[in-house]
Specification:
Blueprint lengths: L4 E4 H8 L3 H10 L10 E3 H16 L24 E6 L4 E5 L6 E5 L4 E5 H9 L3 H4 L3 E3 L2 H5 L4 H10 L2 H8 L3 H10 L2 H17 L5 H11 L8
Antiparallel strand pairs: 1-2, 3-6, 3-7, 4-5
Helix pairs in contact: 1-2, 9-11
């Protein structure tokens, strides 16, 4: 055994704070001759053991960052007078009159946003109004659109954009992507989010500037994966 003998296995184990058997096993793995806890050790062997345990103990504990859970509402959770965000697809002035409140909601051009009372939207949905099913307006409440009672509206939104349309949006330059993404219905946004999330898991995602846009618009936390 090379080097000056300064302590035995059990003394080194006590210093490090591990069982003597662990130190013996480590020494044998590194082909250091050792019989038991009473075996004297060279300086070289001691430094090797110390270095091994210091490296293991100093490794920072990985903290798993969990994304905040979204609050999920169902159709039954909405109050009749609750305001639901909507966006116009119509190029000119669009007037939407609610059958329940008889209020007229005015949209000033494509992309203009207004809040419409839930009861007025629900009435239009149940009556299959053209403003909802041949959409002049897009409902931008994700919980509402994903509710089973609104599945027909969700299908309309899903059929508005096919895979090629979605791919075109994803391939847009950064500045154009932001404008186009904001205009998409919730279902199309979610398809892009799902695609990007899959690419991140596969390690093939490179468009982090676009991920920041999605975080800003949708409240996702792609930034936690960067």
């Amino acid at each position: 055994m090379k080097g000056k003998i300064t302590m035995k296995v059990f003394e080194l184990a006590k210093e490090i704070g591990v069982p003597s058997s662990d130190v013996v096993a480590l020494l044998k793995e590194n082909e250091v001759p050792v019989k038991n806890h009473m075996t004297p050790l060279s300086d070289e062997a001691i430094e090797m053991v110390r270095a091994n345990y210091i490296t293991v103990q100093d490794e920072p504990e990985k903290v798993e960052v969990k994304e905040p859970k979204k609050v999920v509402k169902t159709d039954a959770d909405y109050r009749p007078e609750e305001m639901i965000p909507c966006r116009s697809l119509f190029a000119g002035v669009l007037l939407f009159t609610g059958d329940h409140t008889h209020m007229t909601y005015a949209f000033n051009g494509a992309g203009d946003r207004r809040n419409i009372e839930y009861q007025d939207l629900k009435a239009a949905m149940l009556q299959h109004k053209g403003s909802i099913f041949d959409p002049d307006i897009i409902i931008e409440d994700e919980n509402l659109i994903n509710d089973e009672h609104w599945f027909e509206v969700k299908e309309v939104y899903e059929n508005m954009f096919n895979e090629k349309d979605i791919e075109k949006v994803m391939n847009l330059p950064y500045r154009d992507f932001e404008k186009a993404f904001i205009q998409l219905p919730i279902t199309a946004k979610n398809r892009i989010i799902t695609t990007y999330a899959t690419q991140m898991e596969n390690g093939t995602f490179e468009q982090w500037n676009k991920a920041k846009i999605i975080d800003k618009v949708c409240g996702t936390r792609f930034d936690l994966k960067m």
